[in-house]
Amino acid sequence: MTERTPHDDAAPGSREPSKVHTFDLIDEVPGVSDGADAADPDAADPDLKQPDAGKDQPDEPAPREPGRVAIALAGARTAVGRTARRGGAAVRRRLPTTRRGKILLVGGTASALVLALSAGVLVNAQLRERALLATPGGVRSLEVKPTEQWSVDLENPIAATLVEMPGVLAIAGDAKVRGVDPASGDVRWTVDVGADPHCGPSTLGNGGPVAPADPLVCVAASGDGDGNQVVTVIDRDGAARTRELDPGAVVLPTDDGGLIHLEPTGGDQEQRPVVVDKLGAPHLPKDFVGPDLTVRAEDAATGRARWSDTVAFGAPRPDSCVTYDDNAAPVLDVVGALGWDLNGSVLEVGGCGVSAAFLLDGTRLDDPDDTADPPAGGVDTASFAPLPDGGWIGPDAAAADVTMPNDVVHLPHGATFPLSGQVLLPWATDGRDPGLLLERVGIHVEARSTAEGEAGARLWSAPDLRAKLLLARVSGTAVVVDERGAVRAVDLGTGADRWTLDPEVLSFGDLVWAAESTIFGAFTDGDTLLLPVTADPSGSAAGLRLLAVDLDDGSVRWEIAQDTPYTQLISVDGYLAQITQQGVVGLG
User: Fold this and answer.
1) 126: part of which helix (H) or strand (E)?
2) I need a labelling partner for 238 at 20 to 30 A (CA). Which of 297, 334, 394, 490 fits?
């Protein structure tokens, strides 16, 4: 997959010949073995030493009669050879002998080759589009400025959320979920789910993409006024199943029809005020021992347990055990202080003296024997997260300096290697694996191979690239936000600069470190990158801008200015949909 190639002076931006990284679209042709010898199968093996003719040979035992299997194989081989010779003769007999006939044959062969090549290009383009549309940020076309194609009115759009299902846009709001055709806006089905539904995983927030929910799991108030909850599981065709949950259950839906329960068990769970010092820092009661945390996954529709694990209470930081009341006074509240982050296939949980990370199949990612409550010393050393092409990353517990962020990469083919910094995870991709990942080391960027057999090998280094965010990894190009405020594109194969977007286009100014709060996602059709950005990063004016950047040269293809800062924008099956003041609109 990955190789070093000689320097090509014609290649744009190829700075260091020894650090060129190339990508092979096709590794091998099915059915054709590498280096296969097409010689006659009856030919003698050249590695076997043959006796010289005419020389006396020592007496040897008489050869045994061939077995039935050998006779059958010999017969089959003879028949195949005879058929091939007859077929070749038949073809030769049908070849034209006249000059005109040969010209027509050559023309027909050329036409066939053109048709075959065209078909191959078409198939490759279809495969690329299929891979692109399978990504959460893939869009069918961004060549021209999109316009409103359809709309669905909502009573309370601000409280609604958009969730992608396979081929269906799910609109959760107004105590129901509507399944909408993302192309036409037709409402296929409607399911009542209860007040204030939490359906997930949703696209709220920014950063990495969210996988489609299949089926969709929604948790809402039961409506009995006692604080009870119900969970509703909705298939892509609108079929739904509902059941009640235990009172006070802390749950979160997953994208595979699951439900995660977080249950503090044992220990001191009493909610009460805490003492603060002169600096306002809270102090826990003497000899305080908090509860362990049971993390349990179940099938949301049936309640059948999938897996369960217990995170032992460790040495807590006081601020991880408190919440604040209406008067801003700190309160010891181990249940209310629970936190979690569900990022694709990786679940992180944390709270008062507890911290852990899991894959959704129950695999524990952190060290269960380490009861220290990370991040150690209050410094965020790193986090757990899934890689877009499979595998996951986590903090390097063996790093010499725990105050510096260092990741360990775990690839799907089993290779594991530590980094000198942190992985830059793309917000949008084209669905193709480039065989590498980008790593921020100090203030510069390096590329590491993910290919089997050379995983972790350093491919190139870009000392002048100070990437803070990786917005997109598309068509051999990485688009990053530089800490100086510019959006920059670099060649994934070499690290060479391709273009730079003027910082004034996004109006970061001195607020580049708040870029994650001003860019609300990334979408691409493979040629253009769409960025929803706040109209005014300083916050003095409301509004949103949809900015389309040409991936080839960094020029702004088009821009849409919106008066309201509704940041929920989603792509379903390649169609864009967005929350507005009135409801949801389809853009195309």
Assistant:
1) helix 99-133
2) 297
Residue 68: count of CB within 10 angstroms of its CB: 8
Q: For residue 525, what are the contacts with CB-CB under 8 A and spacing of at least 6?
A: 132, 138, 139, 140, 141, 142, 143
Q: How far apart are CA 146 and CA 148, in angstroms?
A: 7
**In contact, 489 and 479? CB cutoff 8 Å:** yes
Say whether 122 sits in a helix, a strand or coil. helix
Q: Helix, strand, coil proportions of the chain in percent (round to 5)?
A: 15, 35, 50
575: left (phi over 0), alpha (psi -120 to 50) or beta: beta
Answer whether 362's CB lies under 8 Å from 381's CB.
no
Q: How far is CA 347 from CA 72, 251, 292, 450, in A?
A: 60, 13, 17, 23
Tokens of 508: 């970061």
- Which segments in the chain show pLDDT lower than 70? 1-123, 202-209, 225, 371-382, 400-403, 507-514, 537-540
pLDDT at 402: 60
Instruction: Specify burial of residue 107 (Cβ count, 10 A radius: 0-12, 13-18, 19+).
Output: exposed
Q: Specify the pLDDT at position 505.
A: 81
Q: Give CA–CA dist 518/138, Å, rounded.
A: 21
Q: Which amino acid is at 385?
A: A
**Nearest of 324, 267, 274 to residue 293 by alpha carbon:** 267
H helices, E strands: number in the chain: 3, 41
Query: Which of 587, 585, 582, 568 lies closest to 210 in space, CA to CA?
Result: 568
> Which stretches does DSSP call E strand in 181-257?
187-192, 195-200, 216-221, 229-234, 240-244, 250-253
pTM exceeds 0.70, yes or no = yes
Amino acid (one-letter) located at 68: R
Per residue in 419-473, pLDDT (tens digit) is 999 999 999 999 999 999 999 999 999 999 999 999 999 999 999 999 989 999 9
344 neighbors 208 (Cβ within 8 angstroms): yes
291, burial (CB in 10 Å: exposed 0-12, middle 13-18, buried 19+): buried
8 Å CB contact between 445 and 491: no
Place of tokens 């990955």: 2
243/490 Cα distance (integer angstroms): 51
In order, the DSSP letters of 35-96 are T---S-TTSPPTTSPPPPTTS-----PPPPPPPHHHHHHHHHHHHHHHHHHHHHHHHHHTS-
| C-alpha span between 308 and 49 (Å, rounded) | 65
Nearest to 179 by CA among 162, 203, 160, 154: 162
The pLDDT of residue 7 is 39
